[in-house]
Amino acid sequence: MPTVRYSQFTGQWWEQASLEDLLSDLADFLLQSGLGEADPWGEPADDLTRLQEALLRALAARGHITPEELDAWETGEASPERQRLQQMLEALLRTLVEEGYLAIRPPRTVGDDLEVRGYAGEWGPSDERARFALTNKTVDFLGFKSLKDLLGSLGKSSAGRHETRFLATGVEASEGSRPYTFGDTLNLDVPGTLLRAIGRGGLTLPLQLQADDLLVHQAEYASSCATVLMLDCSHSMILYGEDRFTPAKRVALALAHLIRTQYPGDSLQVVLFHDTAEEIPFSRLARVTVGPYYTNTAAGFALARRLLGRQRKDMRQIVMVTDGKPSAVTLPDGRVYRNPAGLDPRILHRTFQEVLECRRAGILINTFMLARDYDLVAFVKQVTALCRGKAYFTTPVSLGQYLLLDFMTRKIRRTH
Length: 416
Description:
This protein has 416 residues and is α/β, with parallel strands linked by helices. Helices cover 39% and strands 17% of the residues. Helix 6 (136-152) crosses helix 8 (245-262) and helix 9 (297-309) packs parallel to helix 10 (345-360).
């Protein structure tokens, strides 16, 4: 009979380290809006040197690194302590790549292609010139963490589903059966169907079923919602000594994770608006940075309206997160007219036109405003009045709580 012999683990602690805890500590670094941009000295923000420094800070906060070892690393002098730290960092980075949390790229590479799960040629975690990129697995984990943090700050609550007072033929039966009609989910009440067939034609074999014999279970009808999240990524989102864009990205990640896990019938699309507007796949969200400079709100509304027009949901809504006034508009010939000085009447007129088009299409617009200047408040109130939506004047700290609570409660109010 084979035997199993157990012995004391004698390896290094980082060989058994929790990658999820490590990514949680690195969340602020990975989601910062400057990721992927060059600093004033021309160094890319997503090179391995900065990632190693962030890893060391996280490990020092957890007590895995002594102050003497951290000083030895920062001085750059060759020492046994620095050699040990280098070995540890290479092992951790290699594990993150092998587990699919990071992708390593050669220097001067760009783009969002994350097919490379291992090392790109000769470039690996030991080469400081290499660059890293977040994989979809990491983006999904960061969304889960953001949602957990945001909902945890609200106290005890349940996300649930968007329940209504109506009945439908769903998979989860909770009410009595009724005769089948064309278009119903074929969730048959088998005993009731057989009894109807027997009552009509008697107990004969083979049993002759007709369409009138069919009974289907009834379930509570859960409404569906299509959402376009419009994120302002103009440069004002990181100016004036405050980063407003990173909290907005966190909320978007949390909202996407909430929809995917709690509201599988809903849909979420992300639109960035700056000089123009663009839809981005969710996999790119964590790697998006601020820029270009201006705020073309009208282009964002137009693109969001087209995207929602393709959706066949009970409700369609736009959730806009912004901190500034519209400062650009796309002209009929395709050129972009810009005026950063103030609320230009030409720009406002085009923006309000798009708001009215959204209202005619039955699309609700809810605005989350991260600034409280008098002129900006007046603009947001006008948008809210035109589309009969809501406006929330909040801060980057409370943005997530406002937005998630609004999303989870709005459908019940509108459906009833």
